[in-house]
Amino acid sequence: MKKIIAAVLIGAVALTSVFAAKKKNTVVKLGVVGSIYEDLWAPAQKLLKKQGIDLKFVQFSDYVTPNNALSNGEIDLNAFQHRIFLQNEIDNHKYDVKLIGNTFIIPLNLYSVKVKSVSELKSGSIVAIPNDVTNGGRAIKVLAAAGLITLKSDAGFNPTVNDIAENKSGIVIKELAANTIPAALKDVDAAIVNGNYALDFGIKTESAIFKDTSVSEKAYWNLIAARGKDLQDSAKVEIFKKVVKAFQTAETEKVFNKDFGGYFIKEGWDIDEF
């Protein structure tokens, strides 16, 4: 009887040791802008959970804060911006932030609740565009592609209103913070709306009066970014690689196509950015 009790006690101790030795999941804080990103990342979050990684979303309401938060170590990764935006942030703020993976490209379309076609915009019509350098420059190019303006021959990759050679339509361009444009749509004649904000406000891509023609440009691929310092840590790099691979799956693409048709187009998944 004593031997049986001893065996049971040994077994109990061994089982307790197993549970005590079980590692806690690694928490990775991912900075995003807009609730839609949580839906886009849901398949990856589920897959990572099985790999011992808890992906926690940290929501930001603007495009200014996430890179600062990443550079300062408040979050581990962010996924909200395209390449040209990140480069501009690094140039202006010297952030220690690096590209580690590609996600998708988001069309930057022209919408209106007052007119049904570009031809209805006339002299004095107010058209809102994002006021940040990179999305603003892209918006200017969309307006040019729509035939509302023409650009100077020496206009750079990120043109501004000062690079407009001719405003033959006579529209008035109003620069606003990107996150305020959907709410302002009723107060202007038309607006260039960032895709994630358009989705958050229920603006459907098929309602666009002109669709973005710059979707083939690599500079506008959205990305996953990490702090440069963390990329010197091999353990963190392995975790970050798992996060990137977890996003770049057929399950994520199903979400793109089934739930958000037309807004998200996968790009650069075959490129290893580490």
From TrEMBL:
Cell location: Membrane
Pfam family, one: Lipoprotein_9
SUPFAM superfamilies associated with the record: Periplasmic binding protein-like II
Predominant subcellular localization, coarse grouping: membrane
Keyword Signal: yes
Entry keyword set: Lipoprotein, Membrane, Palmitate, Signal
Gene Ontology CC terms, in alphabetical order: membrane
Position of the signal peptide: 1-20
Family matches, as InterPro entries: Lipoprotein_NlpA
Record flagged with keyword Membrane: yes
UniProt membrane topology term: Lipid-anchor
Family: Belongs to the NlpA lipoprotein family.
Protein name stated in the entry: D-methionine transport system substrate-binding protein
